[in-house]
Amino acid sequence: MENYERDILIGKIRYTNAWPMYHHFDVDRLTKPSRLVVEVPSVLNQGILDKTLDVAPVSSFAYGVGSEQLMVLPDLSVSSDGAVKSILLFSRKPIEELGDVSIALTNTSATSVNLLKIIMSKKFGANPSYVVCEPRLDVMMAEHDAALLIGDHAIRASWEDHGFIITDLGEIWRAWTGHSMTFAVWTVHTKFAEQNQDFIGELVAAFVHSKQQSLAHLDSLVAEACNEIGGTNHYWHSYFTNLCYDFNDKIQAGLQLYFDYAYELGLLDHKVHIQLWSNNTLTQVKG
User: Fold this and answer.
1) φ, ψ for residue 195 (rounded to 5)?
2) Which residues cross the membrane (predicted)?
3) Phi and psi dihedrals of 26, rounded to 5?
4) Which of 121, 132, 146, 271 is most buried (CB neighbours < 10 A)?
C-alpha cells in the first residue's frame, strides 16, 4: 500500500448543485488525514487529470477524457431527467434558429460546453463558432449571439431582466434523446482506489449519507443557498428536488450516449466505457 506523507486531497465543487453531498460531510471524521479542495469544476477537472487530487467530483466530460485511469464512485452524480435549471444558453433568437453564429462559452466547465456542441451539431445541424469567456453575461452577449453559463452564474443570470431567450440544455437533451443527462460524477484514480479500498468505501458511505440527510431535511440546505446565493426558499426547494444525485442504470445509459456522441464528433479521442468502483471489484457498465 502506498504511504501518503500528505493529506488525501478531496475535491468539492463550488456550485450549489453539489451541496447535498457535502452539507453533512465532515472531512475531519474520516479515518485518514484528508483535506477538501473547493473549486469550480474546471479546476477540479484539471486536478484529477494531473493527479494533484486523489478523489473529486468532476465534469462528466473530464471523466471521459481520463476514463482509462479513473473510476466512478457509485450512487453519486449531478444529473437531471429534463430541465436542470443551471445549465443555460442565453440568446436573442431561439436555439433552433441560431445556425452558424458566434457563441460565448463559460470557462468554468467542460461537460456543458461539449453538450452544447453535440446538440448544435447533431440535433440542429449547425456549426457555430465558439469562444471561451469569463462567465459574465453582459460582456459575453455584447460581442456574441449567444452565451452558455453554468452553475450559480447561470442561476443568477436567469433571475435578471435582460430579455434574452433562456434554453435549458438538460431539457433539450431529454426531449431529443429521451435520456437523462449527467453533468458531474465523483471519480477516483484507479491506482489510489486499489491501494485504499477501505478508505474509498468509507468515503462513498460518507457522501451517500450526506446526500440522503440533505434531501430528507432540505430546510438547512435551502437556508444556506438563500443566504449565499440569494433567491427564495421556493426556488431552492424546487432546484434541489429537481436534480438527481444517484447514478443508477438509467442515468448511466444517458451518460454513455453522451460519451458516444462526443467520440463520434471528435470531442473525445477514445471511446469511453464507464468503470464503476465497488468494494472489491471493478465493475464495467454494460451498454
Assistant:
1) -90, -10
2) none
3) -115, 105
4) 146
Provide the grid cell at 80.
437531471
pTM listed for this prediction: 0.90
- The residue with cell 464495467 is 284
Which amino acid is located at 241 in the chain?
T
Distance CA 286, CA 270 (A): 17
65-80 pLDDT, tens digit per residue, is 999 999 999 999 999 9
Q: Is 139 helix (H, G, I), strand (E, B) or coil?
A: helix
Question: What cell numbers appear for 200 in the block?
Answer: 474509498
d(CA 278, CA 283): 7
The answer for residues whose C-beta is within 8 angstroms of residue 145's C-beta and 6 or more apart is 91, 92, 93, 98, 101, 102, 103, 128
Q: If DSSP codes are grouped into helix, strand and coil, which group holds residue 256? A: helix
Record the cell numbers describing residue 284, joined without a space: 464495467
Q: Are 173 and 119 contacting, i.e. CB atoms less than 8 angstroms apart?
A: yes
* Gyration radius of the chain over CA positions: 19
Q: How far apart are CA 59 and CA 14, in angstroms?
A: 12
Task: Please enumerate in sequence order all residues whose Cβ is within 8 A of that of 89, keeping only pairs 6 or more positions apart, or say none.
Answer: 95, 103, 116, 146, 147, 148, 166, 167, 169
- Three cell numbers written together for 251: 442515468
Strands 8-13 and 165-168: unpaired
Q: What is the spatial distance between Cα 50 and Cα 63, in angstroms, rounded to a whole number?
A: 12
